[in-house]
Specification:
Layout (H helix, E strand, L loop, with lengths): L4 E6 L4 H11 L4 E11 L12 H11 L3 E6 L4 H16 L5 E3 L6 H13 L3 E3 L7 H11 L2 E8 L14 H4 L15 E7 L10 E13 L5 E12 L3
Parallel strand pairs: 1-2, 1-4, 2-3, 4-5
Antiparallel strand pairs: 6-7, 6-9, 8-9
Length: about 240
C-alpha cells in the first residue's frame, strides 16, 4: 500500500484554492487532511473574499474535510505569521508534512511563503504554479467547478459583475486591463459547486456594498482600494 503525503490546503473558498484542491484530490500521492482559512479577527469574514465563516464551513462540510480557522488582524503580517506557526505545530503533530497554496505566478508572494514556512521546517506545494491565466481558466472550465464573483475591485470591474457566475462569456466581457483569472486582485469568487462536493452550497447575493480598505503590502508599503462586496444570504 502506497503511503500518501499528508497535506493541508490553504482555502479561500474561491476558484484558485478549489482548483488546487481538485488537483491534489486527483493525485493518489497526497492525502488532504484539512482546509485552512484566514479570517479577519473583527469581522469573522475570510480575508479578501469577505465571506462569512458559516459559508466557508458549508464548503468544508460538503467536502467532508475539517476546517482549521486562523483569526488574524487584517494588514498585520506578524499576526498572520504567529497564527501560521500555531497551525504548523498543530498539523505537524498529525503527521502533516506539506501545506498547499493556489498561487499562480506572483513570485513575491510565493517567495514570502517559502521563506516563512522554511523557518518552520514545513514543505510547500503549489499545484497551479507556472500556469498562465488563460491556462488556469481553461482548467477551471474543464474541472466542473462552479463559482460566482463575490468581490470586484471598483476601479477594474463594475458593481454589476458581483453575483454573476464565472463563465467563458462573462470573462470575455472583462476590460482589457483585467487579468482573466483575477491574479492581481481584480475579483474574487466563491465556489458553490464542485465534483468533490457532496451537495452544492446554496447562497444568494442579497446586496452589494462599497468598501474602502487600506492594505499593507509585503514590501511594507500601503495601498487604498475600493471594492464592491456581495453580502451573502441563503436559500436553505
Amino acid at each position: 500500500m502506497i503511503k500518501r503525503t499528508k497535506c493541508v490546503v490553504s482555502w479561500s473558498g474561491g476558484k484558485d484554492s478549489a482548483l488546487a484542491l481538485h488537483s491534489l484530490l486527483s493525485n493518489n500521492q497526497f492525502e488532504v487532511v484539512a482546509l485552512l482559512t484566514t479570517f479577519d479577527l473583527d469581522s469573522a469574514e475570510s480575508q479578501m473574499h469577505f465571506v462569512n465563516t458559516n459559508f466557508i464551513q458549508k464548503q468544508a462540510d460538503s467536502l467532508s474535510l475539517p476546517l482549521y480557522i486562523m483569526n488574524v488582524a487584517t494588514g498585520m503580517p506578524r499576526s498572520y505569521e504567529e497564527e501560521i506557526q500555531k497551525a504548523v505545530e498543530h498539523f505537524r503533530s498529525l503527521g502533516v508534512s506539506h501545506f498547499s497554496f493556489g498561487d499562480i505566478h506572483l513570485e513575491n508572494v510565493k517567495q514570502y511563503r517559502i521563506e516563512l514556512f522554511a523557518k518552520l521546517n514545513m514543505e510547500l506545494l503549489f499545484p497551479l504554479w507556472g500556469m498562465s491565466s488563460q491556462q488556469l481558466m481553461s482548467s477551471f472550465y474543464e474541472s466542473g467547478l462552479k463559482a460566482r464573483i463575490v468581490v470586484a475591485q471598483a476601479d477594474k470591474l463594475g458593481e454589476e459583475y458581483v453575483g454573476k457566475d464565472l463563465t467563458k462569456e462573462l470573462v470575455s466581457s472583462f476590460p482589457a486591463d483585467v487579468d482573466v483569472c483575477g491574479e492581481n486582485g481584480e475579483y474574487h469568487t466563491f465556489v458553490y459547486d464542485s465534483p468533490n462536493y457532496a451537495v452544492p452550497v446554496n447562497f444568494e447575493i442579497e446586496k452589494v456594498e462599497e468598501r474602502n480598505f487600506r492594505f499593507k503590502l509585503l514590501d511594507g508599503s500601503t495601498v487604498n482600494s475600493k471594492f464592491y462586496v456581495g453580502r451573502f444570504g441563503t436559500f436553505d
